[in-house]
C-alpha cells in the first residue's frame, strides 16, 4: 500500500476501489460515491441553478456510474470521466425538460449597436473583485440555456467544439450564446451591487 495513498474510508486507493466496484463490490462503489458526491452535486447545481434538481441529478449520475463503471478504461482520470458522465446526465435532463430554444438567426445576428467584440474571448469587465455570493446568485439567475453554456465554457473549461458536440448545436451558436450569457451576467452583476451610502 506504500505505492499509493489510501484515499477511501475502506483504506484502499481510488484505483483499487474502481477495480472492486467493477466486480460488483458495493462497499467500494459507496467509497467512490463518498469521494466524489460533493463535486458532482456542485456541478449539477451550477448547471441547473436548482437544489432539488441538483440532488436528483447527482443521484442519477451515480446510478449511471453504477451501470457504466465497467466501461471505464483508465484512459483519463476517473474524476474527468465521471465529470463528463455527469455533464451528460444534466444535459439529457435539460433536453427532456425542454430548454427554451433561441433561433439561430437571433443568436448569429451581428451586434452593430456597440463596439466590436471578439465572441468567446475573456471578458475583462467580468474580472476584478466581485462578491462571490453575488456572482453565484447572478449565474443562477441567467436564463437556463445561457447558464449551461456559461458554466460549461467559463467555469468547467470546455472548448466551443466540445460544447457544440454535447449540446447538438453549431460552434457559432455556442459562441453567440456565451457572448449573450456574459452580457446578461454583466447586467445582473451591475444590478446586484449594493446601494451606496447604506450603513453596514
- Structural class, from helix and strand content? mainly alpha
What name goes with the CATH superfamily of the largest domain?
Answer: Winged helix-like DNA-binding domain superfamily/Winged helix DNA-binding domain
CATH fold call of the largest domain = Arc Repressor Mutant, subunit A
How many helices in DSSP terms?
A: 9
Envelope shape: elongated
Calculate Rg over CA atoms.
Answer: 20 Å
Q: What is the second-level CATH architecture of the largest domain?
A: Orthogonal Bundle
Report how far apart the termini are.
54 Å
Question: Could you say how many structural domains there are in total?
Answer: 2
Q: How much is the average pLDDT?
A: 78
CATH hierarchy, class of the largest domain: Mainly Alpha
Q: Give the amount of beta strand, in percent.
A: under 5%
Low-confidence stretches: 101-117, 196-200
Question: Count the strands?
Answer: 0
Order of helices and strands: HHHHHHHHH
Characterize the largest beta sheet: strand count, sense, and whether it forms a barrel.
none
Q: What share of residues is helical? A: 55-70%
Could you please describe the fold and organization of this structure?
With 200 residues, this protein is mainly alpha-helical. It folds into 2 domains: 14-97, RNA polymerase sigma factor, region 2, helix turn helix motif (Rna Polymerase Sigma Factor, Chain: A); 104-192, Winged helix-like DNA-binding domain superfamily/Winged helix DNA-binding domain (Arc Repressor Mutant, subunit A, Orthogonal Bundle), CATH 1.10.10.10. Helices cover 63% and strands 0% of the residues. The protein has 9 helices and no strands. Helix 2 runs antiparallel to helix 3 (51-68), helix 2 packs across helix 4 (78-97) and helix 3 (51-68) crosses helix 4. It is elongated and about 50 Å long. The relative contact order is 0.10. The model is unreliable at 101-117 and 196-200 (pLDDT under 50).
Amino acid at each position: 500500500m506504500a505505492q499509493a495513498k489510501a484515499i477511501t474510508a475502506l483504506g484502499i486507493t481510488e484505483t483499487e476501489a474502481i477495480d472492486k466496484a467493477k466486480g460488483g463490490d458495493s462497499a467500494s462503489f459507496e467509497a467512490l460515491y463518498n469521494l466524489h458526491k460533493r463535486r458532482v452535486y456542485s456541478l449539477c447545481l451550477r448547471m441547473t441553478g436548482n437544489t432539488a434538481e441538483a440532488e436528483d441529478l447527482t443521484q442519477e449520475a451515480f446510478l449511471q456510474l453504477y451501470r457504466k463503471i465497467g466501461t471505464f478504461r483508465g484512459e483519463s482520470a476517473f474524476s474527468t470521466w465521471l465529470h463528463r458522465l455527469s455533464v451528460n446526465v444534466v444535459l439529457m435532463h435539460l433536453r427532456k425538460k425542454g430548454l427554451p430554444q433561441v433561433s439561430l438567426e437571433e443568436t448569429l445576428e451581428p451586434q452593430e449597436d456597440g463596439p466590436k467584440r471578439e465572441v468567446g474571448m475573456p471578458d475583462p469587465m467580468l474580472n476584478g473583485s466581485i462578491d462571490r455570493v453575488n456572482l453565484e446568485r447572478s449565474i443562477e439567475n441567467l436564463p437556463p440555456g445561457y447558464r449551461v453554456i456559461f458554466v460549461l465554457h467559463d467555469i468547467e473549461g470546455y472548448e466551443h467544439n466540445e460544447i457544440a458536440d454535447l449540446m447538438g448545436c453549431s460552434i457559432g451558436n455556442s459562441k453567440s450564446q456565451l457572448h449573450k450569457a456574459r452580457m446578461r451576467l454583466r447586467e445582473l452583476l451591475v444590478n446586484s451591487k449594493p446601494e451606496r451610502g447604506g450603513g453596514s
